[in-house]
Amino acid sequence: MLAVAGLLACGPVLKAGAQDMPEVLPAEETETVVPTDGGFHKMLKTKFIEGSAFFMSWIAIAFVVGLAFCIERIIYLSLSEINTKKFVASVESALEEGDVDEAKSLARQTRGPVASLYYQGLMHLDQGVDVVEKSVVTYGSVQAGYLEKGCSWITLFIAMAPSLGFLGTVIGMVQAFDKIQMVGDISPAVVAGGMKVALITTIFGLIVALILQVFYNYILSKIEALTTDMEDATVTLLDMVIRYDLRYEK
After folding, report:
1. Which residue of 23, 78, 161, 226 is 20 to 30 Å from 8, comparing CA positions?
2. Cβ(133)–Cβ(238) below 8 Å
3. Closest to 77 in 3D by CA, of 229, 231, 233, 236
4. Is the dihedral of CA 221, 227, 233, 236 positive or negative?
5. What is the separation of C-alpha 96 from the centre of its chain, rounded to a whole number of angstroms?
6. Cβ-contact 121, 237 below 8 angstroms
7. How far is CA 98 from the centre of its chain?
């Protein structure tokens, strides 16, 4: 009885306290701030997962291996580049002084295809201009092969990436038609899933091919520049050999 009397006595106080409390808005009326975690890399990751795992994995492998070949070629070609004018001037100065051993040493200690051609030509300096020309031309084709080494693999992966994407597209469309046949109804919900997966593989395949194509064109430009330097340096070397022979024949 005492407990009941206590609750009845506290009733008016609780009611007054409830009237003083602020009104709580419903869940629908409260404004909630949802953090947005976006970014291109996350979208790319999501789309990659949504694609066919089998074909997307092969496209990723083609991209990684093709990019590795591109990086290897770029490093090799960058190390092959030298200051050709300075090198040719040093060799010419040594030959003008009659120091063939110094010219050979300069060619042997310098990296790159131009220095290799000069060393090959200077090794046959005492055999005449014709022999020097033949040896330089023959060895030049070998150096050109070294410069273009691995480029065929890059072109293979450039062609393979979109081909895998198109293959995934065709298979995805076949799967979409299979779902339509199973359901017996052409509804957007049934077709959209298969078409989405099919188009994602094509998009990634084309992106990989475009990236590798840019690297490949850059590699070709470096090869062309080195080849031009080799041709110009070869002409200069033959002119040096002719002047060297004429000077010592007299």
Report:
1. 23
2. yes
3. 229
4. negative
5. 46
6. yes
7. 48
| Residue 87 near residue 114 (C-beta atoms within 8 A) | yes
Continuous H helices in the chain: 2-20, 40-50, 53-80, 84-96, 100-109, 113-123, 129-147, 151-183, 188-249
Question: What residue type is assigned to position 118 of the chain?
Answer: Y
**Amino acid letter at 51?**
G
The DSSP string of 1-54 is -HHHHHHHHHHHHHHHHHHHSPPPPPTTTS---PPP---HHHHHHHHHHHS-HH
Kindly report, residue by residue over 28-59, the tens digit of the pLDDT: 344 444 444 556 556 655 655 555 666 788 88
Tokens of 211: 């990236």
User: What digits encode the pLDDT tens for the residues 144-162?
Assistant: 999 999 899 999 999 999 9
How far lies 208's CA from each of 200, 202, 222, in Å? 12, 10, 22
Matching residue, tokens 């975690």: 37
What does the block give as tokens for 54? 């089998």
> Which two tokens mark 9?
């006595």
Phi, then psi, of 33 in degrees rounded to 5: -105, 115
pTM listed for this prediction: 0.73
Token pair of 203 as six digits = 């998009």
Residue found under tokens 């004429």: 246
Burial classification of residue 167, based on how many CB atoms lie within 10 Å of its CB (0-12 exposed, 13-18 middle, 19 or more buried): middle
Pairwise CA distance, residues 239 & 236, whole Å: 5
Q: Tokens 């990989």 sit at which residue?
A: 208
